[in-house]
Specification:
The complex is a heterotrimer of chains A (994), B (88) and C (201).
Chain A (H helix, E strand, L loop, with lengths): L13 E10 L2 E7 L3 H7 L6 E2 L6 E2 L12 E4 L6 E5 L10 E4 L12 H6 L7 H5 L7 H11 L14 E13 L3 H12 L4 E4 L15 E2 L2 E2 H14 L3 E4 L2 E6 L5 E6 L14 E13 L3 E3 L12 E3 H9 L9 E5 L3 H11 L4 E6 L7 H8 L4 E3 L1 E7 L6 E6 L4 E6 L2 E5 L2 E3 L2 H5 L4 E4 L4 E4 L5 E3 L9 H18 L38 E3 L4 E2 H9 L5 H8 L11 H13 L3 H4 L13 H5 L16 H6 L3 E5 L2 E6 L7 H14 L2 E4 L4 E6 L3 H8 L12 E7 L5 E11 L2 E6 L4 H15 L6 E4 L4 E7 L3 H8 L15 E6 L2 E6 L8 E7 L3 H12 L5 E2 L2 H10 L47 E8 L11 E3 L12 E9 L4 E9 L8 E5 L6 E7 L14
Parallel strand pairs in A: 1-7, 8-9, 8-15, 9-12, 15-28, 17-24, 18-19, 18-24, 19-20, 33-43
Antiparallel strand pairs in A: 1-2, 3-4, 5-6, 5-7, 10-11, 13-14, 14-15, 16-25, 21-22, 22-23, 26-27, 29-30, 31-32, 33-39, 34-37, 34-38, 35-36, 36-37, 39-42, 40-41, 41-42, 44-47, 44-49, 45-46, 45-48, 46-47, 48-49
Chain B lengths: L2 E4 L3 E4 L4 E5 L13 H9 L7 E7 L7 E7 L5 E6 H4 L1
Antiparallel strand pairs in B: 1-2, 3-4, 4-5, 5-6
Chain C lengths: L25 E4 L3 E7 L4 H11 L10 E3 L4 E6 L2 E6 L4 H11 L5 E5 L4 E7 L3 H6 L16 E6 L2 E9 L3 E7 L3 H13 L12
Antiparallel strand pairs in C: 1-7, 2-5, 2-6, 3-4, 4-5, 7-10, 8-9, 9-10
Classes of the chains: A alpha+beta (994), B mainly beta (88), C alpha+beta (201).
């Protein structure tokens, strides 16, 4: 018979909408409105998984996000989702559900042999035991990894679409139970923009599983009406299946909305999940409370369930989770479950109540129904293997009270507020002895309401919710004079709970008693931790893994606080609770990544010449976010051959380089020259308009920060070039000085990096090419000498042309507006054909500058290099102060053994040294080997027909010509070389002056 | 995530900003007059205060202005922000 | 001066080649004149001189724009504005502004080729932008006439609220334009908005 445990009336399920899904391949009949858990229970499936460490059989414990056992795997293939809770996953047609953590199958679990052989692996076991003998660790590890699996990741890229949405509101309400619904209504009625989210498929929370009435309506009906009202309100966003999983500083709240990606018919459709990044002005936390489990031997057996969950399954899902029940409680709420069970026709064989008296409203009703009630009694052991078969009762004094047969054992140790979000934000909480749990303290922008405050009855949840919603709206500045009235429900007086942590006397020694079902942490583990000195709750957590599972210890932590307090003989308030951290429930990595994947993962910046480079067959390299042409191989050419060809073309004819990525800053104002004097090491005020100068910029520590050429465009207007990577940092650095320190200087900075593209023509024929392309700028040497700039037109386009050179050849850097740069590039290239023009990329640029001994900031320098270290001491003005100058006379800056820039020539001219290679005076096997320095740049120089390298060598300039050895990854292989001056080619710079 | 109150643009998320370290460390008027120790003190030594901290931020992705934020380094609570114009 | 050389926008538009119909909800507005202006807001003489040239008063309230007949001025910082127009050539406008500001501490820099404008319009515009913009763009917080420099996905952008359609102009640096366009298109995809490509001619 299908669904033998389904009740034949009531519930929120849609009996007219039957559906089927599979659990481990078995068909499971369900109705729309079921969760996977309620459907499994309706079908009498008690065993849903095996425990993490001991592989004990485990069943469904709760009806919500707090469940430690009901983790399942949904779907298959690329779209599978691990670690989803059956208790909050809606049952949908065709859904594939599998158990996790049992191998090879749920019913026949090989791993439980592990449990039999070593029934209780104590905390710290892995580290203490399996490390010896050490050589066997890989074997152990293989075994443990297999055992510790929590579902499996998809084996192919997830085809679902995950995205992120930023949202803003006046009031965010987390949780749509009675308090949350009341709060959202009150806030909306005050005119606030509201977002209300609940992790369940349906709004209503506890309202959906109670027989009580609200404003005269059955509670579920009232919940439906309130939800409908919210859904139709204009400025209210209603999000179901949405978990608020993190609350951060500034009240940023992250919500994960599940969009049923596990639906088999949903492949390739819009969304798997969406992360909402909400910045509310005020937050109402109506997150409810989690019922606390109780300790007794074998308290993990399938069939042991939270009492409130039993009521939920009965009332909301019309499922009887068993056929004969025993309840174990320390408070009144389990009596409501007893009444619900009796109503559903499930006999309640006994209620064991820790308290010596129970004469509240609900206990009296239960007593009147003839339910056997044992006050001053506890359950000390569950019998049964695959499922609970009986409960063994004892008096609180330890006297046996007999064994009662049952297949359902409902437990209630009271309720602990679900204050996780509150605590994540670091907001204060206090120990509330009334409920024997921590409760959140309200703050000016976080308003707890309902069960999360420790008040469990419906009428106060509605009252508190309304008040919190209205207060939050008012605090957010929304007040339209409307005072919302709280919905009304009957008061249910209840008597206090009696905290109960440990079984009486020696019964507390019975084994096993689980504190954390997910992590298989037992009472003995806590004892061991305390005995070994790990007493702080955070140490206990780390020693035992308490609360470290994907359930985040929602049930375990509140129990552990009391248990540890009693074991230590301390006040629970002083024991505290482990720090709560996001995520409240598992969030798939796809949702975290959102659309920041593939080509959208990071901006790819390209120049206006990108398409030309692509069609010319360029290979590209990433320089920060920029994609730059690296080299342009001809068909069949290797990189080495292409670069050699490009290098020789520039040295002998002419090359063309896209240098648009350089940073460019216009510096305007009467004090621009003074400003440059302060930020550059050399002198600027006397630079005449139309001229260019190379400048070095230091940090205040005296170390090279950036370098580049600056031109004086006009009297009060300069153009500074920065290195590609430093374009933004240099601008920020300059602005910082202007805005915070030198506020008297009249200087404006404007980035023009993207407005001007920069095309470099380099090589002895570059003048002819520029002339052929057409320009109104006189190009003769005396009209346009080296280190000057001219304004005019190139190929009909307004241009700023700089006679500067990074290759050491005659060179023009032609700046044109980026929207016409492609045209100018093509015009230059066409004009250059008769002259053998060759496009060259960044690799050739690097070789050419290395031949000239020009440094690249970030390659020769690393933030610890002074100008003198790289042989640029002549650029340090003695006549003025500049940023970093004082640091250059610090003792460390003038050490004789500082690393200095030198050239390296290998004994074998074909040998190209490894960049980054360490350099020693003499090789050997002695360790440590004194290090002289390292190779910073290394290339084969085609024009010299041999390899060259630049290196930073301790005291290098004083020992030029000395023999050095460069290390390789093979520790017996050393590459001999001699140091030399770092300019390898055209040492007097004749070629760039022609 | 810190919501940083740019004095010009209002509160914005922290990824629009660049942190600039402790505020109120003026550059010495005459660095050459300082001993190495005094210069090192200016260069390297910071209070790294627990609690109330005045620090520089730049609204990099916004108005590009540098300004001073007062922040509690324990709670991350932001106590105020001022422009350089205000404080001088 | 106007050059005979056709300009190319970062998103493929070519000057004087027919552009896609502008009733599209997502399209590039290429080749607008964009001038970066810096001056001291306390220099009332300079402000008055600028107003004469532009026909519009520079907005002094942060994150607002001022629209004239032919030109829009957007606040970028306490002493910085972006001037946007399709009615003036950059060189002419720069020359006029520089002439008006002679003797004042000010900076006028043409950035037209360095950035482009993407227009997004229609009822789903807010939903599209919310995918990557952390600002509250609800009309109560960001009404027409508002502007803000912020991050759009992982690129810096200047957003201008144009009208209540709502319509937004998104101004991004040239090298980031392909990324931003791809990102907008991706976000707009679920609302059935597509980026018309300009190189269809």
């Amino acid at each position: 018979m299908s669904q033998p445990f389904r009740l034949d009336h009531d519930g929120r399920i849609h009996r007219d909408a039957p559906l089927q899904f599979t659990f481990d391949g078995r068909p499971i009949d369900a109705f729309r409105g079921d969760t996977v858990a309620s459907a499994l229970l309706a079908n009498g499936v008690a065993l849903v998984g095996r425990s993490f460490k001991y592989h004990r059989p485990r069943g469904i414990v709760s009806a919500g996000a707090e469940d430690p056992n009901a983790f399942v795997q949904l779907g298959h293939g690329a779209r599978t989702l691990p670690n989803r809770l059956a208790t909050v996953t809606p049952a949908t047609p065709g859904l594939e559900v599998r158990h996790v953590n049992a191998w090879p199958s749920l019913d026949f679990d090989l791993m439980s042999a592990f449990g039999l052989a070593a029934p209780f692996i104590p905390a710290g076991f892995y580290y203490k035991t399996l490390m010896w003998p050490r050589r066997l660790w890989p074997l152990y590890e293989h075994f443990l990894r297999h055992a510790a699996g929590l579902g499996h990741a998809p084996d192919a890229p997830d085809p679902d679409r995950y995205d992120h949405v930023h949202a803003h509101c006046d009031v965010l309400v987390v949780g749509a139970g009675p308090a949350g619904l009341a709060a959202a209504r009150a806030a909306a009625q005050s005119g606030a923009r509201v977002i209300v989210a609940d992790e369940q498929a349906e709004f209503g929370g506890g309202l959906l599983s109670t027989a009580q009435r609200v404003d005269g309506l059955p509670a579920p009906q009232w919940a439906d009406a309130a939800t409908a009202e919210l859904s139709s309100a204009p400025d209210v966003t209603v999000l179901s299946n949405t978990t608020a999983f993190g609350l951060y500083e500034s009240n940023l709240v992250l919500l994960a909305e599940r969009l049923h990606s596990h639906q088999p018919d949903n492949a390739g459709s819009e969304s798997g999940a969406r992360v909402w990044r909400v910045l509310p002005k005020q937050v109402v936390l109506a997150t409810g409370a989690h019922e606390r489990p109780l300790l007794f031997a074998n308290n993990d057996r399938p069939g042991v369930m939270l009492a409130g969950a039993i009521s939920t399954y009965l009332n909301r899902y019309a499922v009887a989770p068993g056929s004969r029940a025993v309840l174990f409680t320390n408070n009144d709420s389990a009596y409501r479950t007893a009444l619900d069970l009796a109503d559903a026709g499930v006999p309640v064989a006994a209620i064991a109540d820790v308290r010596l008296e129970s004469d509240g409203d609900l206990p009296s009703q239960a007593r009147a129904q003839g339910i056997p009630i044992h006050t001053g009694a506890v359950v000390v052991q569950a019998h049964g293997r695959g499922r609970v078969s009986a409960a063994e009762l004892c008096s609180v004094g330890g006297a046996p009270l007999g064994t009662v047969e049952c297949d359902l054992l409902g437990v209630s140790g009271g309720f602990a507020p679900a204050l996780h979000l509150h605590a994540q934000a670091g907001a204060p909480m206090t120990w509330n002895p009334q409920i024997a749990a921590f409760a959140p303290q309200p703050s000016h922008d976080i308003h707890p309401a309902g069960a999360v405050t420790g008040h469990l009855d419906l009428s106060s949840a509605l009252r508190q919710g309304t008040a919190a919603g209205a207060a939050a709206a008012a605090a957010a500045g929304c007040s339209n004079g409307h005072t919302p009235a709280a919905p009304r429900a009957a008061e249910t007086p209840s008597s206090d709970l009696e905290p109960y942590w440990l079984p009486p006397g020696d019964l507390a020694r019975a084994k096993p008693q689980f504190v954390d079902l997910h992590e298989d942490v037992t009472l003995d583990d806590l004892r061991l931790s305390l005995r070994e000195g790990f007493e702080s709750i955070e140490h206990v957590k780390r020693y035992t893994t308490l609360g470290m599972g994907p359930d985040q210890g929602k049930l375990a932590n509140p129990l552990a606080t009391g248990v540890i307090a009693q074991l230590l003989g301390r006040d629970p308030a002083s024991v505290g609770t482990p720090r709560h951290r996001p995520a409240y429930s598992p969030v798939s990595l796809g949702a975290i990544a959102g659309r920041h994947i593939g080509p959208l993962a990071d901006p790819v910046r390209v120049t206006p010449m990108q398409e030309w480079h692509e069609s010319a067959g360029a290979r590209f390299e990433n320089v920060g976010q920029w994609r730059r042409a690296w080299y342009y191989p001809h068909p069949g050419e290797s990189m080495h051959e292409a670069v050699a060809r490009e290098c020789l073309a520039v040295r002998h004819r002419v090359g063309i380089l896209d240098y648009s990525t350089l940073g460019k800053i216009e510096i305007t104002g009467p004090d621009a020259g003074e400003f440059l004097d302060r930020v550059y090491t050399n002198a600027w005020k006397r630079l005449r308009p139309g001229r260019c100068r190379y400048g070095l910029m230091l940090g205040e520590d005296g170390m090279i920060f950036d370098d580049g050429v600056t031109a004086r465009l006009e009297n009060q207007r300069y153009l500074m070039f920065t290195s590609t990577a430093n374009a933004a940092p240099v601008l920020a650095w300059l602005e910082q000085w202007l805005q915070t320190e030198w506020t008297d200087l009249r200087v404006y900075l404007t980035s023009v990096s993207e407005h001007w593209s920069n095309i470099a023509l380099a090589g002895p024929r570059s003048r002819q090419v520029l002339a052929a392309a057409g320009t109104d700028i006189p190009l003769a040497r005396q009209d346009f000498p080296f280190m000057t700039f001219r304004q005019g037109h190139v190929a009909g386009v307004p241009a700023r042309v700089f006679r500067i050179s990074f290759s050491g050849e005659l060179s023009y850097e032609i700046n044109v507006p980026a929207d016409r740069a492609r045209h100018v590039w093509e015009a230059l290239f066409d004009a250059g054909r008769p002259f053998g023009i060759t496009p060259y990329g960044t690799e050739t640029m690097h070789v050419l500058r290395a031949e000239k001994g020009f440094i690249i900031v970030g390659q020769e320098t690393d933030g610890s290099v002074t100008p003198d270290d790289v042989g640029l001491g002549r650029l340090l003005s003695r006549r003025k102060d500049f940023l970093g100058k004082r640091s250059l006379s610090r003792p460390d800056s003038v050490r004789l053994d500082r690393k200095q820039l030198v050239g390296l020539l290998t004994d074998d001219p074909a040998q190209v040294l490894p960049e980054g290679g360490h350099i020693v005076d003499a090789p050997g096997r002695r360790r440590p080997l004194p290090m002289r320095g390292h190779v910073t740049s290394s290339y084969f120089s085609p024009v010299l027909g041999r390899s060259i390298a630049l290196a930073m060598i301790s005291g290098g300039r004083a020992t030029l010509g000395g023999r050095l050895y460069v290390a390789t990854l093979d520790e017996d292989r050393w590459l001999p070389a001699r140091s030399c001056h770092h300019v390898f080619y055209d040492p007097h710079g004749a070629r760039q002056h022609v | 995530m810190l919501l940083i109150p740019c004095p010009w643009c209002g509160p914005r998320e922290d990824d629009e900003f660049t942190f600039g370290g402790e505020a109120d460390i003026p550059r010495p008027a005459d660095p050459d007059a300082l001993t190495d120790e005094q210069w090192a003190d200016y260069l390297f030594m910071r209070d790294n205060r627990r609690g109330h901290h005045r620090e520089q931020w730049c609204h990099t992705a916004g108005c590009r202005r540098w300004f001073v934020v007062e922040r509690d380094t324990v709670t991350n609570e932001i106590l105020g922000a001022s422009t350089y114009g205000d404080s001088q | 001066m106007s050059s005979p050389t056709p300009r190319r926008s970062p998103l493929g538009a070519i000057e004087s080649v027919q552009h896609p119909p502008q009733e599209a909800q997502l399209f590039e507005r290429p080749f607008l004149t964009q001038i970066n202006l810096r001056l001291d807001p306390a220099d009332s003489e300079a402000l008055a001189a600028i107003q004469l040239v532009l026909g519009v008063q520079l907005p002094l309230t942060p994150n607002t724009t001022a629209a004239g007949q032919e030109l829009l001025a957007a606040w970028l910082g306490p002493d910085e504005w972006l001037l946007l127009t399709e009615h003036h050539q950059p060189d002419a406008l720069v020359t006029n502004l520089q002439a008006a500001l002679t003797g004042h501490f000010a900076s006028v820099v043409d950035t037209s080729a360095g950035q482009t404008v993407i227009r997004l319009s229609g009822p789903s515009a807010l939903d599209v932008l919310a995918r990557g913009c952390a600002l509250d763009l609800h009309p109560s917080a960001f009404p027409p006439g508002a502007c803000a420099q912020t991050l759009l996905a992982r690129a810096q952008a200047l957003l201008i609220a144009v009208d209540a359609a709502p319509t937004f102009d998104i101004i991004v640096r040239r090298s980031f334009a392909p990324y931003v366009a791809a990102w907008l298109q991706d976000s707009a995809h679920q609302f059935d908005l597509h980026f018309p490509t300009s190189d269809t001619a």
